[in-house]
Write a structure and sequence with these properties.
157 residues, mainly alpha, Ferritin, 7 helices
Length: 157
């Protein structure tokens, strides 16, 4: 049980670090380029994104830590964590493409890929631990919302 908390702590720290590093791309244009974009009526206020993403990264880290604690030697654990790592990279890539490069269409392609990878990640997490899979559901819902938002911003601009 003690190792489980260690794995969860490390995983949460990694996810938060990825989020923190991704925020550098976001900060560079959120107050300039993003403000000028046409956005749909359901676009949330800017202040909501940081707390929501922080919660998502914490839930993601807890889920990954639970899976990791099952033993990295196990092929299903490895497969689940590989999927998790790849989707986490696409998560960060989205911020770089959308905010860093101001490319709404490229970001749309990235977030669609992220959505597919996330579904596979949830599938593999469920094989290893159902609780871990369920912890990713809020993240899945948020990415679905973000995908629709990204699409509408691309469409309107």
């Amino acid at each position: 049980m003690k190792n489980r908390y260690k794995y969860i702590g490390i995983s949460v720290a990694i996810c938060l670090l990825v989020g923190f590093l991704s925020s550098f791309a976001t900060q560079s244009s959120v107050n300039e380029w993003y403000v000028e974009l046409n956005k749909p009526w359901f676009n949330p206020p800017n202040w909501i994104f940081a707390p929501v993403w922080t919660l998502m990264y914490i839930l993601m880290g807890i889920a990954a830590g639970i899976v990791w604690a099952k033993g990295f030697y196990h092929i299903w654990v490895k497969t689940a964590l590989y999927h998790f790592g790849i989707q986490l990279l696409f998560n960060a890539l989205w911020s770089i493409i959308f905010f860093g490069f101001n490319n709404t269409f490229g970001a749309l392609l990235v977030i669609i890929t992220l959505l597919v990878l996330l579904i596979f990640t949830i599938k593999w997490f469920k094989v290893v631990n159902k609780t871990a899979a369920y912890l990713l559901i809020p993240y899945l819902l948020w990415v679905c919302f973000a995908t629709v938002l990204n699409y509408k911003i691309w469409e309107l601009n």
